[in-house]
Amino acid sequence: MANTQKEHRNEGGKFGRGQHPNSKKNLQLWQPGDSSPNPNGKPPGAIDIKNRLIKMLENIAPDKIQNSKQITDFCTGISQVTNLDAVNARLVYSAIVEGQGWAIKEIFDRIAGKAPQAVEVDLQVNDWRSIASSAGLTEEEFIDESKLYVAELEASLIRE
Predict the structure, then answer these.
(1) Most CB atoms within 10 A, among 62, 92, 100, 130?
(2) What pLDDT does 1 receive?
């Protein structure tokens, strides 16, 4: 075993997250200027979860769903029924037949996206000059102390 491999192992003899020599072997960084690691978008034939669920909801009448057989019948019209279709079918059944609130919420979240949530932020901003004077420091002394603090913080981050 190479010495570098011993250095990256934890107490149990296992590699830490991202430390195994093979973890970076196949890593390929995208080139600068590329918009994303997948510049061509979804590959042709990729399953569109949202649209499959919408199609299922549009084609299954609520008064006709008595059990999961009707959903299974719907899936027979699909050229290749996937696990995704089975999960969507269970979700639709839970929402429409059983009236499960969690399933209804999940369907709306998948189709329309999650509703935005308001976040209250209480932010108090103090001018650094008032902080310096309340600490009994001149502006120059405060700047020097701040530089020392930042240097100590950077050094502690590098050690980690």
Answers:
(1) 92
(2) 47
